[in-house]
Sequence to fold (269 residues):
Amino acid sequence: MKKLAIFSLLVLMVAVAPAISRADVTQSDRLLQRPEWDGAVMPSPWLDGGLTYEKWENDSYKADVWSLGGTFITSLKAVPQLELGTRLDIMNYDPNYSGSETGLSDIDAWGKYQVYKDSQVLVSAGLLVTLPTGSDEIVHPHASGEFNAEVFGAARYQANRLLALIGHLALRQNNDMDVKINNTTSRVDGKTQMAMGGGVIYQVNSQLNVQGELNFATEAYDDFENDIQLRGGLEYKLDRHLALRGGLSIGLADGAPDWALTFRCAYLF
Fold:
């Protein structure tokens, strides 16, 4: 299944690459996994909402996870180099060892500042914190129910007007979290986590871009594993404000979903 999905992603990107392009990759074009991990700053308010399905399947357990939520990002007219953002999901967690549970994820809130900009290179540094709204009945890194903090740096290289290369490096402190399984609550020790990765956005034509990314993160908690995800996606602009986005990710380690699908809609004000 994983090999077939990876092959399909590669075929899709090769198939669309030769198309004639008539538009530029812009700073509002973002990768799917974490749009804040980018050297670019959003030029105006941007609202992105959608639905994600994750299939977790490894030696320890199986689970289906649905997430419905949104991300809001904006910059400030007084300080255009500063980007602020927040993210929240409603999650449904259905493991094989008990019934399904529905609750909130943690709230992510971040600010980042563009420290360098020229005609090709954009570099930003930021701080993200999570607010403890996550449910202890949802065993998922995005629902810790604790205050966590992350510092990150990100860069974008505009290889040409059609192709942007994006990379990031992050260090995150995950605090100990409570998990509730079959009415029994236990404490899981948090770890200092390092994350790094990169991706590409290629503008196929004035309405369509394709993207791919590979991200790696060390263990977030004791008894968790490394999180390595390969993702491919598309963004189709219905007009200059509204875009449909979606993608498929493949987990390459047990700390990531075995596979995941996401469908999103973004509006640039």
